[in-house]
Amino acid sequence: MTGHETDEAAEEAAEEAAHREFLRLLGGLRIWNHPLPGFDPVGLPAEPVSLFRTWLTEAAAAGCPEPHCLALTTADTEGRPSARMMTLADADARGWHFASLETSRKGQELDGRRHAALLAYWPVHGRQVRIRGPVTLADAAAGAADLAGRSPGARAAALAGRQSEVLARREDLAAAYGTARGALADDPRTPVPAWRRYLLEPDEVEFFQGAADRRHIRVRYRRTGGARPQWTQELLWP
Ligand SMILES: Cc1cc2nc3c(=O)[nH]c(=O)nc-3n(C[C@H](O)[C@H](O)[C@H](O)COP(=O)(O)O)c2cc1C
């Protein structure tokens, strides 16, 4: 064996050992190693948003970190999906609201294909909620109002823009944030037209209550009505 081959063999052995260690870690991790609440699917609210609010409120009360952060999945025009975390801005009778830059990847994907999915997971209670439906863009005033309620850092980030573009040099980011902070110091209401509020109007919302014995309870709400939504509830096999 040459010295080069010996190095390669040692590197491979180290990689294999690291992989074995990783698999050992995965094998030792557990889900729901703590008591989970029960969930009676009888007598649930007629529409899904109140149950969602109850579950989020209960997760927050139980100390679940960032219970208002959900994964948002969009797809490009070829149907290739892309997911990322988003902060929930509201959930009301119309649907689930979030905000972002319309120039970002998600903004462009939503522009080309308006269907999306949101996913909430609260490990503390073993609860998952899946939401899907078309997304609409709220008017510019809604975006401005949303941004006005955010922290100075968040406003500067929005104003600097360029979310999801390739960042050629770290210094470019520092310079853009510096410029944005300066502009906001001069005028805290500096508009950021690309910052928009989005509304996902659900056609389906599924509530999943995990159970240690794997007899999970799944209840799906399906929208059946038109302008005045009606909801059908059905149980799903776990
Ligand atoms: C917990 C958490 C919350 C986030 N909330 C938001 C948000 O409300 N709006 C937003 O534009 N990006 C948010 N982000 C950043 C996004 O996950 C993502 O990196 C960014 O929006 C770019 O996504 P895109 O390339 O798919 O457009 C959040 C990230 C995390 C980890």
UniProtKB/TrEMBL annotation:
It holds the Pfam family PNPOx_N. Residues 56-170 form the Pyridoxamine 5'-phosphate oxidase N-terminal domain. Keywords: Flavoprotein, FMN, Oxidoreductase. The keyword Flavoprotein applies. Residues 195-238 form the Pyridoxine 5'-phosphate oxidase dimerisation C-terminal domain. InterPro entries: Pyridox_Oxase, Pyridox_Oxase_N, Pyridoxamine_oxidase_dimer_C, Split_barrel_FMN-bd. Its cofactor is FMN. SUPFAM superfamilies: FMN-binding split barrel (SSF50475). It comes from the Bacteria. PANTHER family: PYRIDOXINE-5'-PHOSPHATE OXIDASE, PYRIDOXINE-5-PHOSPHATE OXIDASE. Belongs to the pyridoxamine 5'-phosphate oxidase family. NCBIfam families: PRK05679.1 (NF004231). This is Oxidase. It comes from Streptomyces spororaveus.
